[in-house]
Design a protein that fits this description.
The complex is a heterodimer of chains A (about 100) and B (about 170).
Chain A lengths: L3 H21 L3 H25 L6 H31 L13
Chain B lengths: L2 H22 L3 H21 L3 H25 L15 H20 L17 H10 L5 H22 L4
Classes of the chains: A mainly alpha (about 100), B mainly alpha (about 170).
């Protein structure tokens, strides 16, 4: 049987890798890829706590499904924003998207 | 070591390796393909956790829809991919140290937590996890309200995405 700590350490590592991607990539699409990794690590945590807690309480899995829906919403809006910015300003580099700055 | 532990270690190492490739590779199409590998590894982890519905949804929704959406977005913005230019910003070392610090902090917190050595719960005999999940999602005294709110959120986000990406010419 796999100990609970292995799942938690695995998901912490996946979260940290995603955080690194979000903080250090220049391309806006690559930043969204990092966010996907972070959301996935959260789902691993939720499923692991469901399995190692009370399996008759489905809260962990229900929460994971809601995270799926939120991830789909986030990706669709994020990529629509990236494509819209690319069409108007011809760039997807996050540093160059500074239209809100005076 | 039991067989399950060996499978877990192999899958976890593969998943973390492909996650590292997602954030470091220069070519964004390759990054999206490595993301598919990572998502597949996480689906295997769900299967190891006996969360069969989550494993299937992971393959269908994440790999089937979200990863393909990423590949579409990469191809629609292809001219600016800049395979030759630097893929990391100037402060990448700051991001790297913050990620390492986050992992170290989480690891430290986990070591001090008493529930870390918990063993997996045994399923009651005749327990149908997928059926229970379906009941929990639609039963009024369980999670029907969060479920419906999530659906409304998804519709609103998709309508908003169409509006934002619409070409008014």
């Amino acid at each position: 049987m796999v100990p609970l700590s292995w799942y938690l350490v695995f998901s912490a590592a996946l979260f940290s890798i995603g955080l690194f991607g979000v903080l250090s990539r220049r391309n806006a699409v690559a930043i969204l890829l990092g966010i996907e990794l972070m959301l996935n690590s959260v789902n691993v945590n939720l499923a692991a706590f469901w399995r190692y807690g009370d399996v008759t309480q489905m809260a962990g899995q229900v929460f994971a499904i809601i995270v799926f829906a939120v991830a789909a919403a986030e990706v669709s809006v994020g990529l629509a924003l990236v494509i819209s910015v690319y069409r108007k300003h011809n760039t997807v580099i996050a540093d160059e998207i500074d239209m809100l700055k005076f | 070591m039991t067989g399950e532990q060996i499978i877990f270690l192999l899958v976890a190492l593969f998943t973390l390796f492909s996650a590292l490739r997602v954030v470091t590779t220069g070519n964004l199409v390759h990054a999206a393909l490595w993301l598919i590998a990572t998502l597949f590894g996480v689906a295997v982890i769900f299967a190891l956790l006996n969360a069969s519905f989550l494993a299937v949804v992971q393959v269908v929704v994440y790999i089937g829809a979200i990863a393909i959406l990423f590949i579409f977005a990469v191809m629609l913005t292809r001219k600016e991919m800049r395979d030759q230019g630097p893929q990391m910003n100037r402060n990448w070392w700051f991001g790297a140290s913050l990620a390492v610090l986050t992992f170290a902090g989480l690891y430290f917190l986990l070591q001090g937590w008493s529930g870390i050595s918990k063993t997996a719960a045994v399923f009651p005999s005749g327990f149908d996890a997928v059926g229970e999940l379906g009941n929990a999602l639609v039963s009024p005294n369980a999670y029907v309200l969060p479920f419906e709110v999530a659906s409304v959120l998804l519709v609103a986000a998709l309508v908003g995405a169409v509006y934002v990406a619409f070409n008014r010419k």
